[in-house]
């Protein structure tokens, strides 16, 4: 089924994606949005994709993991972290195709 782009834009104009790394405050913000603004949520957890992904094809979905050096993880440069966040979204969208 082909969906008209304008129709899709209209239907999704009030849909917001909130993403970020560990301990970024995503859950806190979502709770505030629900309580104070009456938002409805649909959660999508990166961890659920991990068992079904190949680490070579989907490297961003493999982080964070139990063997990670957390000092390096939290102290990496912003541009590296932003690149990872964009890669996560791309890999999740690819998995959903």
The poorly predicted ranges are none
Shape: globular
Order of helices and strands: HHHH
The biggest sheet, with number of strands, parallel, antiparallel or mixed sense and barrel status, is: none
Radius of gyration: 16 Å
Residue share in β-strands: under 5%
Structure description:
With 97 residues, the protein is an all-alpha fold. The two termini are 14 Å apart. The model has no long low-confidence stretch (mean pLDDT 79). The chain has helices at 5-11, 26-37, 70-74, 78-96. 44% of the residues lie in helices and 0% in strands. It is built from four helices and no strands. It folds into two domains: 1-42, no CATH class; 44-97, no CATH class.
Q: Summarize this, please?
A:
It contains four helices and no strands. With 97 residues, it is mostly helical.
Give keywords:
mainly alpha
Annotate the secondary structure layout.
Elements: H1 5-11, H2 26-37, H3 70-74, H4 78-96
């Amino acid at each position: 089924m082909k969906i008209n782009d304008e129709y899709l834009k209209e239907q999704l104009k009030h849909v917001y994606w909130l993403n970020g790394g560990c301990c970024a405050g995503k859950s806190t913000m979502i709770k505030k949005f629900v309580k104070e603004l009456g938002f409805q949520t649909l959660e999508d957890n990166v961890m659920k994709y991990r068992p079904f992904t190949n680490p070579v094809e989907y490297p961003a979905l493999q982080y964070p993991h139990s063997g990670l050096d957390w000092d390096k993880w939290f102290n990496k440069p912003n541009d590296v972290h932003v690149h990872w966040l964009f890669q996560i979204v791309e890999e999740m969208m690819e998995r959903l195709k």
